[in-house]
Each structure stands twice: as C-alpha cells, then as structure tokens.
Amino acid sequence: MKWKVHGERRVHESAWLDVSLLDVEQPDGNRYEHHAVRLADVAATALVDDHRRVLLLWRHRLVTDTWGWELPMGVVEAGETPEQTAARETVEETGWRPGELTPLIYAQPAGGIMDAAHHVFRARPSAYVGPPVEENEADRTEWVPLTEIRGMIARREIVSSATLVGLLHLLLDDAR
C-alpha cells in the first residue's frame, strides 16, 4: 500500500541535511503531517587485506557522545560518484589508497522517516601513501581481523549503520 504525498514544506536546509514536513495520506484515508529528513549520500570503504583484516577507525561521535569503530567514509560531494568519494575518504582518513572498488552493499538505514543513502564498497589496499591528512576524523586506525567483528558488534564497539551493514555483508560473504 502506497502513501500519497499532497505537499511538502521545508523546515530546514543545509549542505548535509534537509528537514521537511510532508502532507501525507495513508491508504486508510488518514491524513497528517509527517517529518522527512534527507541527508547527503555517504560512501564507505571496507578495505580488506590478504590476512582477512579490515581497516577501521576509532572515532568519537559528537551527537551521541560515543566512541566506536567505523569504516572510512564521508559525504558524496557535488560532482563525485560514490566510488570516488569512497576512494578519496579512505586516503584522507587512513593514508591507504584502495585498489579497485567494487560495490558491496547499498542501504537506507531508516526509510520510514529518512532518506540517507549509504554506499559501501569493498577493496584491497593498493598502497600506503602516508599518514592521514584528516586530523579531526579518528584517534587511531587499526587492521582488525574479520574474526573479531562479531564480538565487537556484540559489545557495541561497532554501531555505525554504514559500518554495520558493510561488515555484516563481509561476514556473510565469508560464510559462503
């Protein structure tokens, strides 16, 4: 059953985030205002080496005031493809240049209220090009064995949606 949108009123707009109120009608005829949050697309890289380790960043997130492990990721900028963003962010945040990027998974983490496209790619490292240039992104970067990921998720050391979806997909691939 599809809901109808009769109109939209923008409440807030910025480069990363738009908030609107939608005039919606549910299939049963109930009509009301529904919030809609639209975020800029995000691209992430699951960089996996020959030892079955993935490169993760230890980051603090301001809004939730939490620390956690995340894949290198960032906002897809105007004129960039998600693949270009994933490659650029990986180099900037880790100092590692990814090899060929292949799509791993696409996700919308909260489609009932938010449009937030997450593009996750898989790659092998091609070269270490130097220390990260993004000084405000992470406290440290580590190669983590894939065998440790499930425990880290259980301990809530990994909670970022793009990271969770990408890493769980890697684990599913390994289980085949």
Oligomer: single chain
How does the overall form come out from the CA principal axes? elongated
Q: How is the largest sheet built, in terms of strand order?
A: 1-2-3-10
The CATH architecture of the largest domain would be Alpha-Beta Complex
CATH class of the largest domain: Alpha Beta
Structural class, by secondary structure, is: alpha+beta
Brief sketch in words of this structure:
The chain has 176 residues and is an alpha+beta fold. It has two domains: 4-38; 42-175, Nucleoside Triphosphate Pyrophosphohydrolase, CATH 3.90.79.
Describe this structure in words.
- With 176 residues, the chain is an alpha+beta fold.
- The chain has two domains: 35 residues; 134 residues, Alpha-Beta Complex (Nucleoside Triphosphate Pyrophosphohydrolase).
- Helix content is 19%, strand content 44%.
- The protein is built from three helices and 13 strands, in the order E-E-E-E-E-E-E-H-E-E-E-E-E-E-H-H.
- The strands form four sheets. Strands 1-2-3-10 form a four-stranded mixed sheet, with no helix packed on it. The chain has a four-stranded mixed sheet with strand order 7-4-11-9, sandwiched between helices. Strands 6-5-13 form a three-stranded antiparallel sheet.
- Strand 1 and strand 2 form a beta hairpin.
- The chain is elongated, with a radius of gyration of 18 Å.
- The two termini are 35 Å apart.
